[in-house]
Write a structure and sequence with these properties.
Length: 253
């Protein structure tokens, strides 16, 4: 059976778990050739063995390693058609007055600088091709503030700005760039945040957060985010670029 992505080369960062793993699985099922990037070597290699992709262990906050995963993709396949620029961290929750510059820089290095460097390196490949589709992972944090979460909020605002700029730069070359903005999704990161919100009762914090979501009073799933990402990467979204696409159960309506 042919798939929407037969023969397409897809690079996915943060591929060992969460959104990255779900998107990689869907793309593999639909015929894509995968280049799977993550900083966590053992889970990454397990995923690559299962899905049949090329694993590249890399820290997306480091320029040589970002350029390295892009070079590995081109060396293996000669091109890059799809890019899910997804790797991110949550960082420490605390009021600004209690955060260090290192706290801010650590989050920014992965979530903002890493996204920028990934876009830069992949666009250098896609522009000569005259085609490509990119999805960056932002967050509902790209459109709102949150007390005690300023480094993450700032980094995801940056992802939105980078996405819009890259969409304009890529458009003359037939390259589409979008970003997804998940709300409360049941992932490792979400569970880690409930540990920070209420260390003594993270399960209670999880339930309180879920109750704020208008659609079903529940957390979403990584699969529900992946459904949108895969569509945005597909030719079905051929006239969609430069957008921020919420996956939040109407929370920010």
């Amino acid at each position: 059976m042919s798939g929407r992505f037969d023969g397409k080369v897809a690079v996915i960062t943060g591929a060992a778990a969460g959104f990255g793993l779900c998107v990689a699985t869907r793309l593999a099922e639909e015929g894509a050739r995968l280049v799977l990037v993550d900083g966590d070597a053992d889970p990454l290699r397990e995923v690559a063995a299962k899905l049949g992709g090329l694993p590249v262990v890399a820290d997306v906050s480091l320029e040589p390693e970002v350029d390295g995963y892009v070079r590995a993709a081109v060396d293996a396949h000669g091109r890059i058609d799809l890019f899910f620029n997804n790797a991110g961290i949550e960082g420490r929750m605390a009021p600004m007055t209690e955060l260090s510059v290192d706290d801010f820089d650590r989050v920014s290095a992965v979530n903002a600088r890493g996204v920028f460097m990934g876009l830069r390196a992949v666009l250098r490949v896609m522009k000569p091709q005259g085609s490509g589709a990119i999805v960056n992972t932002a967050s509902q944090a790209a459109i709102k503030g949150a007390a005690t979460f300023s480094p993450y909020i700032a980094s995801k605002h940056a992802v939105l700005g980078l996405s819009k700029s890259a969409a304009l730069e890529g458009a003359p070359y037939g390259i589409r760039v979008n970003c997804v903005a998940p709300g409360h999704i049941d992932t490792r990161m979400a569970r880690a945040l409930t540990e920070q919100i209420d260390p003594g009762n993270p399960a209670g914090a999880y339930e309180r957060v879920a109750a704020t979501v208008p659609l079903g009073q529940r957390y979403g799933t990584a699969v529900e985010v992946a459904n949108l990402v895969v569509w945005l990467l597909s030719d079905e979204a051929s006239y969609v670029s430069g957008g921020l696409h919420l996956v939040d159960g109407a929370l920010n309506s």
